């Protein structure tokens, strides 16, 4: 039986562990300490409790390991991976942003594009919508998808994951930036002029993606705005909660990554430049 591990008992990690447990998979949720997480799956389903094991106590390796900590927290768990994975283990980074996988000392590692919306408050996670992970298609991920087809965790396989990664980067660029700097949840989009600002910001990012050779439909910005329209007003983003809790932001892996690529291509991106600078001010 495949052994699944999930590192990070936040909204994404807890949702992944919950869906695997509901499908009777052998799964262990790992964190910085032993504790219990209360999980509200939404859709009028009953709340449940999931146990979290201190990652230092986990000694048996996993066949599939989901890493659902923030992108900037990955280095903190890297030294634990030697105990958690074997020669043929699959490691899936379920994180926002972009990372060069070639720099990681992991044999079978995949960057997932994550569509799981939820909120963590203390030891309680509330799930809002979606349980989707996009992965690059190959023999290993095809087998993984088959194994998880009976679960509520939906694996979507892509022939070109780069386009999917950039699409999510642009989704995050808009909503994460304005919820963080506006210090509000998705209802910040109802502020006069905010939607127009977001459209300009996404357009800056779109031009960078095109310079990188990524092509999208001409309706891209409208499509992303339609995604935002499906968010409940009370739904926050990871960057909003990090600002609220005075935590380190994922800015280097979202806005910062796009900003650096814009500089490489010598593009003028005034909205991105302004947003990135303001977010950096919160890191000081």
Describe the structure.
- Pfam families: ApbA, ApbA_C.
- Keywords: NADP, Oxidoreductase, Pantothenate biosynthesis.
- Its EC number is 1.1.1.169.
- The chain folds into two domains: 3-159, Rossmann fold, CATH 3.40.50; 162-281, N-(1-d-carboxylethyl)-l-norvaline Dehydrogenase, domain 2.
- The chain contains ten helices and ten strands.
- The protein has helices at 11-22, 74-78, 81-84, 139-148, 161-181, 194-211, 220-229, 238-244, 255-264, 270-281; strands at 3-7, 26-31, 35-40, 48-54, 62-67, 85-93, 109-111, 113-121, 124-136, 154-158.
- The chain is globular, with a radius of gyration of 19 Å.
- The mean pLDDT is 94.
Tally of strands: 10
Which CATH first-tier class of the largest domain would you pick? Alpha Beta
How helix-rich are the residues, as a percent range?
A: 25-40%
Helix count? 10
CATH fold topology of the largest domain: Rossmann fold
Give the DSSP E fraction (strand runs of 2 or more residues).
15-25%
SSE pattern, N- to C-terminal: EHEEEEHHEEEEHEHHHHHH
Q: Write the CATH homologous superfamily of the largest domain.
A: NAD(P)-binding Rossmann-like Domain
Radius of gyration: 19 Å
Domain Ketopantoate reductase N-terminal: 5-129
Enzyme class: oxidoreductase
Organism: Staphylococcus argensis
EC number: 1.1.1.169
